[in-house]
Amino acid sequence: MLEVGTGFHPELTGRENIYLNGAILGMKKAEIDRKFDEIVAFAETEKFIDTPVKRYSSGMYVRLAFAVAAHLDPEIMLVDEVLSVGDAGFQKKCLGKMGEVAGEGRTVLFVSHNMGMITSLCTSAMLLDGGRAVARGSTSETALTYFASGRSSPHAADFGGNGNAVGDDLAILLTAHIEDEAGQVTPEVSLTKPFRVVMQYRLLRPVPKPPYPNFHFYDARGECAFVSGGHAFTNGGTEPGVYTAVCTLPAYLLNNGTYFIGLALTFTHNGIHVSFWEKDSLAVSVRDPFEETLEDVRAGYSGPIPGVVRPRLDWAIERIA
Predict the structure, then answer these.
(1) Which percentage of the chain shows pLDDT scores above 70?
(2) How far apart are the C-alpha atoms of 284 and 175, rounded to whole Å?
(3) Quick check: 88 and 303 in contact, CB under 8 A?
(4) Distance, CA of 99 to CA of 107 (rounded, Å)
């Protein structure tokens, strides 16, 4: 499916185009007869099935065209950016249909620039650049490669391994990583689960006040989503040694997508002094499960939900009349 609706004739009715398009796609008339009612029900065009498609809205046209192609029952379904069109209900049906095809043991090859949808739908991914495969593996790792654009932003980093210390005479950055709620280091986390950003640093000499670790979160476009700073120690934290700073992000905070995290350490005992600030040091892919069981979480949305943050807020809805 490179473009839904290819082969439709505007002067023919929806019914006639189902048979015409089905024949073009390789379906036999008996097969179309058997699946006709299912196709029409999927497209939700029952009332207009005998109306020329030139009088259809763009949404009706797309729904009918996708319905025909989706019921071809192919061994391999190649979908190229088709889900960028249509309304929310149509997109949800498309997602469900592709999941149904994959669940039957057939192959779905989904082509898109929407990394959130890819990481939610696919089990593996390949990144193409100029017709060449430049990355292949898990969806989360491939998405991070796509967004990094030459930057090195892993989900775990050792800053002391290359012999070049990151920091100054007060403190140096040692390691950092992303971990899930079970403490496993991972490049991908679920939107429905909390996760942690962990940083280790070494304080090199005594200071009057403990420093503030802070993490800077950026989305894939380079826009700052938010900054979070650690609270100062109530006791200690001023003597030389190795320290671990852990920031826990709750479930349903970040929207699905890829995020880059900058690491910093700030001292305030003599004005504002930053010992290190490493932008895009870590990267994490937040995955939206797109599961039917999360219907209440998605609030009727299908496909990507706008915004950088996606908090699950308290609502009160009641009938008053």
Answers:
(1) 83
(2) 16
(3) yes
(4) 10
**C-beta of residue 261 within 8 angstroms of C-beta of residue 282:** yes
Tell me the DSSP string of 24-69.
Answer: HTT--HHHHHHHHHHHHHHHT-GGGTTSBGGGS-HHHHHHHHHHHH
Residue 257 CB partners (closer than 8 Å, separation 6+): 115, 116, 219, 220, 285, 286, 308
Evaluate whether 289 touches 120 at the Cβ level (below 8 Å). yes
Give CA angle at 167 (166, 172), nearest 5°: 85
Domains of the chain, CATH where assigned: 14-111 (3.40.50.300), 156-287 (2.70.50.60)
140 touches 119 (CB < 8 A): yes
- Residue 247 structure tokens: 């920031």
Q: Report whether 283 contacts 153 (CB < 8 A).
A: yes
C-alpha dist (Å) from residue 50 to 21, 45, 53, 124: 15, 9, 9, 42
Q: Supply the pTM of this predicted model.
A: 0.61
> In terms of Cα–Cα distance, which of 122, 134, 151, 140 is closest to 280?
151
Q: How far apart are the C-alpha atoms of 257 and 287, rounded to whole Å?
A: 7
* pLDDT beneath 70, residues of the chain: 1-6, 81-92, 116, 120, 147-153, 161-163, 232-235, 290-304, 319
Encoded tokens for 59:
């949404």
Give the phi and the psi of residue 153 in degrees, each rounded to 5: -130, 80
Each residue's pLDDT tens digit, 221-248: 778 899 999 876 666 788 999 999 999 9
